[in-house]
Structures are given as structure tokens and as C-alpha cells.
Amino acid sequence: MLVANGIKPPLWAPGFQHTHPLANGLVGLWPVWNGPSLSTRLMDISGNGNDGVLTNMTPATDWVSSRFGHALDFDGSNDHVVIGAPAMTTAVTAMVIFRQDTTFTGRFDAPMARWHSTVGDRDQFFIYIQENDSNKIRFGIGDGSSSAEVVGPTISTGTWYTVIGRYSKVEQRLTIWVNGAEYGPTTTSLTMNAATITELHLANLQTDTTTHAFAGRITDAALWNVAVGEGLIAEVTADPWGMIRPRQKAYFFMPPTLLVLYANKRGNKRGSRKQ
To answer: I want to staple 50 with a disulfide (CB 3.0 to 4.6 A). Which of 28, 41, 65, 167 is the partner?
Structure first.
């Protein structure tokens, strides 16, 4: 969503709408805003069972309030969420809604990444903020020996962002959207690395280092194993909670003055029939 629009999520998570067009290829949907929880579990409501585990975190203090309900607060040291998710090699669409609170000189802070056991270009895909490049947001993929990236705008601390990264092997391009603005695409012939990829992370690129830890808050995340169409990306950017928002029935609204006139007219007709 354009976070500045002030669109708010539902007051509760009624469950994912499996008939929604964005259900196609959905790997996981993690409505952090629906917290808090006293456990270390971050629930995936897509039905795929890809729940997350809060790691090095204390639920009582790391679930915090946000303008959208709730968020997880990450310390930029070793706080992160570990999520198991199936492999993907030909396409990915990743979304994360976050607010960066602290920057660290020379670091690469990752709100969301698919982790590999070796540091570097072996990461399957990543959304990270490169602090030695004017704090610009990036989305990229790795094939095990090299990587390709698309660069977005500078991220300001204390500001909420909805970031969506999209990769398609068929189209051979990477694109990133930041609060609805499109950056790229960057063309690439790489295929995402699938070897020993085991974990999806929120707030860290690697488990064994602080140099990629994100300091700030995350309130929503989602992952698809397809290249979501640009029209649907615009839809989820405008309202990321539309996938779980209960669909409302259409009701005819009549202003009170017309309602009184209508009732009087109905009453007059009934009276004339009795005569």
C-alpha cells in the first residue's frame, strides 16, 4: 500500500481469501500487525504452514504498537525471524512493509531475504538497504556465484515503506516498487540459486552475522513463487490487506430525509387500499 494513504488493516485477521487473484503462487502471508503474541511464533495465514520463529527476540517486548496495529521491533544486532519456505528458481515476488529506525555506516541491512548457508552471492533473493550508497533500497537475486540487483530510492529513517521486489526468469528482469513508485527493470540472465536454500528471513540476511541485521519495525510480509502481474502489484500496493479483508456486501444507502418520505408514501398507499 501507499503507506501515506493511511489505509488500515482489518481489526482482526479473518483468514486469507483463497479466491483472491493474489492467492496464485502465494507461499506465505505474515500479518505481523495482527499481533501481539506471547509466543515466538509468527503465523502464516496463507494455509501453507510456513510459520516463522522469532529468534533472539523476547515476545513481551519485541511485539510493539504501530500505526497499523502491531509490528515486530528488531534491534539491528541479532533479532530476526526464521521462516521455512519451499524452493523457487524461476520467479519470485516479495513484499515487506517496514520502518527503518537506525542506520549503521557501511552495512547492508536486510528487511527480507532468502538465506543461503554461505555469505555472499549465494543468497537466493534479498531486499536490503545499502547504507554506504546513500541508504538506497535494493532488490536482487543470486545464482550461487554472482548476483544481479535493481536499485531503488534512498530510505529515510522513521518513515514507513511498502517495498515489493519482482524477478522473472522468463522476462529476464528485476523490478522494485517502493510506495507504489516503480524502479527498473534491470535485465539479467541469472537463475536464482536453489542449492541448500533453507530459510527465509525477516530482518537479517544471514543468521551468523550482525553486518546484515535490520534495525526497525516490520508490520507485514508476503512471498509468492510467481512473478505477480503489475496490475496486481498495484492492487496489493494500494491495499496489502485486501487479500484478507472480508468482502462486504453492497447495501443501498438512502438519506434519512428520503427514507421518511418513502415511509410516508408507503403508509399512504396502504391506507388508500383499505378505503
So the answer is: 28
